[in-house]
Amino acid sequence: MDNETLLEIATQLEYDFDDIRILRQAFTRKSYSEEHNGEYHNEVLEFYGDKALDFVVMKKLSEHYGNATQNGKYASEKTEGQLTEIKKKLVCKKMLAHRIDTFGFADYILMGKGDVGQNAQNQDSVKEDLFEAIVGAVAIDSGWDAEALEDVIDRMLDIEHYLEKGFSDDENYVDLIQTWCQKRYSWIPEYDFYEMEDGWECSLSLSDDYDDFIGRGYSKREARMNAAQNAYEYLEENDELLLPIDEVGEPDIDRAINQLQELYQKGYIDEPYYEFYEDHDENGNPTWLCECHLKNRDQYWYGNHSSKKQGKKSVAYSMLCDVLEWGD
Asked: Rounded to an integer, what distance in angstroms lies between the CA atom of residue 174 and that of residue 228?
């Protein structure tokens, strides 16, 4: 993991590290450390991050559901049991893994060969560890600065959204826009903030293909959410929310023929067609040169195969990967 990647991750966190190397440590599994001369790993950072996360979540719960009474006491809208359940949902393994997926951070985990072989980066427990380690890295780097920790955890977990909307609501426009950008451009949207007399203004940049979207609010979070909502509603209004890959899923060689046909039926591509030419290998065995074309498109895919069926699958898969820009 090079410094450029680390800086991109720090930008997503909206935190400037004094020493970016600790962020690399947050992404380093013990299995990787053991194979690379004892490079520092993230287990201790996980421990600190877990405690910092608990503190910030409890602070948010006390502020969101409670207030001081006239006689100097504290009153809460929720009981102890209710607060306990809300906290569990906010910091559970599934939630933290989901939030790591939202940012696409699991792709950067440094792992040993055993972890790689088991696709450990896809395991919720590994993503949970990464979430806590990142928080721990911020805690150490900032000297346990409460404001920095709260800002980063707000960014990563978006606590207020779940407290306001509940845990079944999926209209988190920041998440939706981030997922859209990652699928379409393989990068994240950029947010710039400007402090105003009555709050904050947020400018959201999706790509050079779009003008910036503006949102305003009393807090950075509100301004960001409003900018993301404006972008989402624009994309929805202009039928740009769904991408071809959203319609048919990731390329699958066993389904590629049907996936191409589905893209054609939904108007994303011209009609696919196939051509076959019989040939023979050096031993005289019959083979087939298979071609996959799209009408009104010069580029096509071809290959020699022992059967028409396998050949058609293979060239359809190649064309599908090309159309979906998969694996570039």
From this structure: 5
- Torsion over CA: 23, 121, 125, 159 (sign): positive
The DSSP result for 108-160, as a single string, is: G-B--HHHHHTTGGG-HHHHHHHHHHHHHHHHHHTTS-HHHHHHHHHHHH-HH
Catalytic residue among 132, 154, 158, 175: 132
Each residue of 136-181: pLDDT tens digit? 999 999 999 999 999 999 999 988 888 887 776 556 788 888 888 8
Residue 328 carries which DSSP code?
-
Q: For 229-294, what is the HEC assignment?
A: HHHHHHHHHCCCCCCHHHHHCCCCCCCHHHHHHHHHHCCCCCCEEEEEEEEECCCCCEEEEEEEEE
Q: What is the pLDDT of residues 48-95, one digit of tens each?
A: 999 999 999 999 999 889 887 777 788 888 888 889 999 999 999 989
Distances (CA, A) of 298 to 20, 258, 268, 294: 47, 22, 17, 8
Q: Which one from 46, 50, 151, 201 is the annotated catalytic residue?
A: 50
Amino acid occupying residue 260:
L
Question: Do 247 and 266 contact (CB within 8 A), yes or no?
Answer: yes
Q: What is the mean pLDDT of each successive set of 10 residues along the chain, which is 328 residues long?
A: 88 92 94 84 95 95 83 84 91 91 88 87 91 97 95 91 74 82 79 88 89 89 88 86 80 92 85 90 86 88 90 93 79
Residue 214's pLDDT is 94
Q: Is 132 a catalytic residue?
A: yes
Residue 248 CB neighbours (<10 A): 22
Are the beta carbons of 34 and 21 closer than 8 angstroms?
no
